[in-house]
Design brief:
Length: about 230
């Protein structure tokens, strides 16, 4: 069997002023890891993001790619590859042109800014020691909230706290959720993240710093070879 489980869904970015964007995603889970894909639109299409990455059986990043377009023009496109002792990045950006980077050390998480990817940091943190913040060594494509700048390899250490379990109702349904707090910068307030099941499927994220309350609007899952795409 090629796939153990497959997930697909849509996340809507909500703000007090109304919906701010959407994110369509798919997750394919295999015995040796998983592949995650996402397409994001923000500001009525003013910013679009295509991202995909794969994790190994230990939930560490293997490789990833992200492309950001703003107002119809390419901001940047970057590809990441991870080895036991380094992070490699090849980028083409409007600001820097063609760049190559090698950052020393193995990281546990690759942040490309789609919200579905936050499930990977939940998997990296785990559910042991509730209430204890654990620092997760990471690489991100951008330090900006919306991930619209840089598009290179930037080191970051993210504080992740497992809070516990609770029942959560979102537009896609009611789920048993694992709850986390994420602190991307020491001077930022933490965001609260809800994910579901052994694959940490995104359910909801609230963050007072951005004013967004993003929730899972549609969701489908399958086992085996059957696709979950377009079922939603």
């Amino acid at each position: 069997m090629t796939y153990l489980r497959r997930h697909a869904g849509r996340i809507v970015y909500h703000h007090a002023d109304g919906p701010q964007g959407i994110e369509d995603f798919g997750i394919d889970v295999r015995a040796d890891g998983r592949t995650v894909r996402a397409y994001c639109e923000m500001g009525d299409g003013a910013l679009t993001r295509d991202a995909s990455w794969s994790l190994d059986a230990d939930m560490r990043p293997v490789e990833g790619q992200v492309r950001v377009v703003q107002h119809g023009k390419l901001t940047g496109s970057s590809w990441y590859y991870f080895t036991p002792d380094a992070t490699h990045c090849e980028s083409l950006t409007a600001n820097l042109g063609r760049t190559s980077q090698t950052l020393p050390g193995r990281v546990d998480y690759l942040g490309l800014h789609p919200l579905v990817g936050d499930g990977a940091i939940a998997l990296a943190r785990g559910t042991d020691a509730p209430g204890t913040e654990r620092m997760v060594s990471s690489v991100t494509c951008s330090y900006d909230i919306n991930g619209e700048s840089s598009l290179v390899a930037l080191p970051i250490t993210i504080g992740v706290t497992y809070v516990g379990k609770e029942e959560l109702a979102v537009p896609a349904g009611t789920f048993t959720a694992d709850v986390y707090e994420l602190r991307w910068q020491p001077h930022w307030p933490p965001a609260r993240l809800w994910v579901h099941g052994e694959d940490a499927v995104f359910l909801r994220l609230t963050w007072e710093f951005s004013g967004l309350d993003s929730q899972l609007e549609r969701y489908a899952s399958t086992t085996g070879e059957e696709t979950a795409w377009f079922v939603v």
